[in-house]
From TrEMBL:
SUPFAM superfamilies linked to this entry: FMN-binding split barrel
Stated name of the protein: Flavin reductase
Classification via InterPro entries: Flavin_Rdtase-like_dom (IPR002563), Split_barrel_FMN-bd (IPR012349)
Record domain Flavin reductase like: where: 18-173
Length: 201
């Protein structure tokens, strides 16, 4: 089949959500200027550059108690920092619980029963037991076409790695079961992978 998005797809569910998959989940923690912590998962997330290391994530939609965007975006624009926490298999239920539409000023760490720890380079909390966490300073926020669509870019200024997730000097995503989004309500867990060298390597 072929369809133009502006005309609609005619299917029960939007296929675009499943075409770009799997997508890593950025479990984003922030702190508002009032000191309240926030934690929410974003599946439009990825790395953006190696040197200096940079990441990006998109936030779509809005909340009635925010002037624009969601709590995560509002907090980042207030403080200029955020932390990206990696989601493991054992954290699936907590990650999902933190995605609920809580009122502003709600601490999702407490609501989802997630243990927090302090970041080292930025004034923000992180998921204490996450396999990895990236402390970031926001570099820019880009408004995308459409209502309440924004991309946040950040430079990674600190990296936390859980020791048991390292194997032979590598960060082993199969060791802890990296969780990724497939689209719709579908997820996957990375349990296996293979190595493939480039022609010029």
């Amino acid at each position: 089949m072929f369809y133009r998005p502006e005309d609609g797809h005619g299917l029960p569910h939007n296929p675009f959500n499943a075409i770009i998959a799997p997508r890593p989940i950025g479990w984003i923690s922030t702190r508002g200027s009032d000191g309240h912590d926030n934690l929410a998962p974003y599946s439009f997330f990825n790395g953006a550059a190696y040197d200096p290391p940079q990441v990006m994530f998109s936030t779509t939609g809005a909340k009635p108690d925010r002037l624009r965007g969601k709590d995560t975006l509002g907090n980042i624009e207030q403080t200029g920092v955020f932390c990206v926490n990696v989601v493991e298999e054992e954290g699936i239920n907590e990650m999902n619980a933190s995605s609920a539409a809580f009122p502003a000023r709600t601490d999702e760490f407490a609501a989802a029963r997630v243990t927090k720890a302090a970041c080292k380079e930025i004034a923000c909390s992180r998921v204490a037991l996450a396999p990895a966490a990236l402390e970031c300073r926001m570099t820019q926020v880009v408004k995308l076409k459409g209502t309440d669509n924004f991309v946040v870019f950040g430079e990674v200024v600190g990296v936390h790695l859980r020791d048991d997730c390292l194997s032979d000097g590598k960060f082993d995503i199969a060791r802890f079961g990296l969780v990724a989004r497939l689209g719709y309500r579908d997820y996957t867990i990375v349990r296996d992978y293979f190595e493939l060298a480039r022609p010029n390597d």
